[in-house]
Design a protein that fits this description.
The structure is a single chain. By secondary structure, the chain is an alpha+beta fold. It has 3 domains: 1-109, RNA polymerase II/Efflux pump adaptor protein, barrel-sandwich hybrid domain (OB fold (Dihydrolipoamide Acetyltransferase, E2P)); 110-163, Dihydrolipoamide Transferase, CATH 4.10.320.10; 213-418, Chloramphenicol acetyltransferase-like domain (Chloramphenicol Acetyltransferase, 2-Layer Sandwich), CATH 3.30.559.10. 33% of the residues lie in helices and 21% in strands. It is built from 11 helices and 18 strands. The chain has helices at residues 77-94, 114-122, 141-149, 151-160, 196-211, 224-241, 247-261, 307-322, 328-331, 396-411, 413-418; strands at residues 12-18, 25-26, 31-36, 41-45, 50-54, 61-63, 69-72, 214-222, 268-269, 276-277, 284-286, 288-290, 293-295, 298-299, 336-340, 359-363, 367-373, 376-390. Helix 7 (247-261) packs across helix 8 (307-322).
Length: 420
C-alpha cells in the first residue's frame, strides 16, 4: 500500500490517523487511514483484503509513492476473526479503569477524529468519557459537540482529575488567592506539531507577503438598502428556494459584475512575472474557518449564478470544509477572494492576497454609526470594506474605482438586480 497520486500540486502528505489497528483484518476498499494534504483530508482505502501491517506511523510525512502499509492477502476471514478477538478484548478492557495498551489503540478505543479532538481539548473533556457513534466506535465531531453541551460529564471531569485537587490546598496558607478562577503564575508550556494544512497556510501567507507588491485600500458602504431588500423578500425567498438570502451572495454578485467590467482586478500574473492572465469569467473563493485552518474553496461562474444558487453552494462548501470533506477539485481554482471577518467581530483588517490571485475583498462587521446624508446626521448600518491587491497587476486608481463601484451597487441593489 503506497501513497497514491492525489493531485498535480500535491507532492507530500501526512499520515494523520490510522483508522484500523496494526494486525487487524481489513476488507477490500475499507478505509485504513487518513492522509492530510495541503488542501484536504482524505481517506485511504485498502487495495486488498487481508491482515494489515503498519509501515508508517501517525504524524509521518510521506512522499507520493512512499510505502504506507502491507496487507497479508494469505490471511483468510477466519484469521480475520481471530485478529478481531484482541480488538474485542481491547474494547472490553477499555470499559475498565485501566487504559488499553498503545499498540491495541484502534477505532474501538474511542479515538476522536481531528475535529472532535480539537473540540474536546478546547473544552477540557476527557475522550474516554465520550461514547463514539462513528465507525468502530470512533468519536465524531457531532459526538464531541454533544458531550460538550451536556453539563453532567463536564461536572464529573474535575472530580476524576488529580490536577484540580491541588488548588484547594493553596488557599490555606494564602487565602487571598482563593478567589482566582485559575492557578496563578503558571509557566506550563506544551509543544504540538503543526498540521500539514497549517504549515501550508503559513508558507503561502509568507510567500504572498514577500513576493507581491501588496497594498490595501478602504471604503465604507451603507447597507440600509440591502438590509431592507433582505427583510422584504426573505420569507418568499426561503419559501421558493429553501435557503435564506444572505449578505455574501449579494456581495459576490456585486463583485462579479464589477470584475467583468474591470478585468485587471480579476487577472493574475504568471510565475515568471512577465505575462498577465485575464479571465472572462468570475470564480470567487470564499474564506471558511475550520478546526484545522482557513480554507478558500471557490464557486465557479458567479456571474452566471442566481443568488439562491450561490447561497446553496456556500452552505454546502462550508459544511464540507468544517467536516474535512472537501475534495482537491473543490479546493482548486478561483480568480478573486472574499473573506468576512465581520462574523468574528472585526471592524477593520488588511487581508492577505490568495496567490496566484491579485485581489481579495475583506468584509467587516456592520455597526450603526452616525453619518451625514443630505446635510442631516442620521444613523445607518455601516460596514468598512478593504481591498488588498497586487500593485504589479492593479493600479491604485483601479483598486479605488473597484470599491466605489461595489459600494454603489450595494447601496442601490436595484442597479445590481438590473445589471447596471
Amino acid at each position: 500500500m503506497k501513497v497514491p497520486v492525489i493531485g498535480e500540486s500535491v507532492t507530500e502528505v501526512t499520515l494523520s490517523e490510522w483508522l484500523k489497528g496494526d494486525g487487524d483484518y481489513v476488507e477490500l476498499d475499507e478505509p485504513i487511514c487518513e492522509f492530510e494534504s495541503d488542501k484536504a483530508t482524505l481517506e485511504f482505502p485498502a487495495e486488498a483484503a487481508g491482515k494489515l501491517m503498519y509501515v508508517a506511523g501517525e504524524g509521518d510525512d510521506l512522499k507520493i509513492g512512499a510505502l504506507v502499509a502491507k496487507i497479508d492477502t494469505s490471511a483468510s476471514g477466519d484469521n480475520g476473526s481471530a485478529a478481531e478477538a484482541p480488538s474485542a478484548a481491547a474494547a472490553s478492557a477499555a470499559e475498565t479503569p485501566q487504559k488499553a495498551p498503545a499498540d491495541e489503540r484502534t477505532y474501538a478505543t474511542g479515538t476522536p477524529s481531528p475535529a472532535a479532538g480539537k473540540i474536546l481539548r478546547e473544552n477540557d473533556v476527557d475522550p474516554s468519557t465520550v461514547n463514539g457513534s462513528g465507525r468502530d466506535g470512533r468519536i465524531t465531531k457531532a459526538d464531541a459537540q454533544s458531550a460538550v453541551s451536556k453539563p453532567t460529564p463536564a461536572a464529573a471531569a474535575p472530580t476524576k482529575s488529580a490536577a484540580p485537587a491541588a488548588p484547594p490546598a493553596s488557599p490555606k496558607p494564602q487565602p487571598a488567592r482563593s478567589t482566582s478562577p485559575s492557578p496563578s503564575f503558571s509557566r506550563n508550556t506544551r509543544t504540538e506539531k503543526m498540521s500539514r494544512m497549517r504549515r501550508t497556510i503559513a508558507s503561502r501567507l509568507v510567500s504572498a507577503k514577500n513576493e507581491t507588491a501588496m497594498l490595501t485600500t478602504f471604503n465604507e458602504v451603507d447597507l440600509s438598502a440591502v438590509m431592507a431588500l433582505r427583510s422584504s423578500v426573505q420569507e418568499r425567498f426561503v419559501e421558493k428556494y429553501g435557503v435564506k438570502l444572505g449578505f455574501m451572495s449579494l456581495f459576490a454578485k456585486a463583485c462579479a459584475q464589477v470584475l467583468l467590467e474591470m478585468p485587471d482586478v480579476n487577472a493574475e500574473i504568471t510565475e515568471d512575472g512577465k505575462e498577465l492572465i485575464y479571465h472572462d469569467y468570475v470564480d470567487i473563493s470564499f474564506a471558511v474557518s475550520t478546526p484545522t485552518g482557513l480554507v478558500v474553496p471557490p464557486i465557479h461562474n458567479i456571474e452566471s449564478l442566481h443568488f439562491a444558487d450561490i447561497e446553496t453552494k456556500l452552505k454546502e462548501l462550508a459544511a464540507k470544509a468544517r467536516d474535512n470533506k472537501l475534495s482537491i477539485e473543490e479546493m482548486s481554482g478561483g480568480t478573486f477572494t472574499i473573506t468576512n471577518g465581520g462574523v468574528f467581530g472585526s471592524m477593520m483588517s488588511t487581508p492577505i492576497i490568495n496567490k496566484p490571485q491579485s485581489a481579495i475583498l475583506g468584509m467587516h462587521n456592520i455597526i450603526e454609526r452616525p453619518v451625514a446624508v443630505d446635510g442631516q446626521v442620521v444613523i445607518r448600518p455601516m460596514m468598512y470594506l478593504a481591498l488588498s491587491y497586487d500593485h504589479r497587476v492593479i493600479d491604485g486608481s483601479s483598486s479605488v474605482t473597484f470599491l466605489v463601484k461595489v459600494k454603489a451597487l450595494l447601496e442601490d441593489p436595484t442597479l445590481l438586480l438590473l445589471g447596471l
